[in-house]
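Aim 2 progress update. The chain analyzed this quarter is reproduced below.
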Amino acid sequence: MPFGAQSTADEILAGVDLSGKRIAVTGVSAGLGIETARSLAARGAMVVGAVRDLAKARAATAPVRDGAARGGGLELVALDLASLASVRSAADSITAQGKRFDAIIANAGVMACPQGKTVDGFETQFGTNHLGHFVFVNRLAPLLQEGGRIVTLSSAGHRFADVDLDDPNFERTPYQEFVAYGRSKTANILFAVALDERLKGRGIRASSVHPGAILTELSRHMTPALVQQLTGGKGFESIAFKTIPQGAATTVWAGFRASAQEVGGRYCEDCHVAAVTKDMTVRVGVRAYALDLERAEALWAKSEELVGERFQLR
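Predicted structure tokens:
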């Protein structure tokens, strides 16, 4: 049977041996992060889980450790994506070990939160979802083995907005929760496009994925008004939700099951590469602006300017 929207992470990875593989995953203290880490460790992978709250993560990741097999396991490192000092400290502690990686999964994120700023003064969603991962992934990228993969978690929410390189922090634009979320999720796709362009010469491919609609801690800020805004007044009952195991499936499909050529530089959903669409009435497909290489390069340059750090990966 072909893989699709109902496939689970375990179904995707059936028969896949990840023994000896080392994989970094952000946000393993809840939801999709835990399930992604569990499914990988169960196939023998050593997962380096980056989390904001170590105490919470130690308790929440018991299923990952209990289900590990064939040398697989879990290491935890503190990482607050809303603080570049924390991001750099986490990356430094990982790179100091000198161990190589086979994949990096940028899973953590926030959604539709009230207007706010990160420690460094960036709009919360753009700063956390994109800029934090921009620095973290780029600092770990030199450790990737040839043939490695990078997967950034985006969302169908990218259709709400393209990135705004002139006003990334809503200093002149009225703040709207889902516009800010859309900008950050488009940035996740464009980041993967730019990474793929830089790293494919080393045999490393990057892709972005939409996990699907899943009820996890990500929706903690969803007020009734925002639910109505998201669904066009239809309510949550109008959305076909996935289970958490189904939500982790596209991540592991893009990272460990699909061919590198198939997913490199692409946006994936429901365990396949998504088609480009202009239809705003559907939740499937990817907007052309999110895959535009010129736009991806402009975002890369702006991101380097904002974080005050340059990354030469070519």
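The chain is about 40% helix and 15% strand. Strands lie at 22-26, 46-51, 73-78, 101-106, 144-153, 205-210, 267-269, 272-273. These observations will guide the mutagenesis experiments scheduled for the next reporting period.
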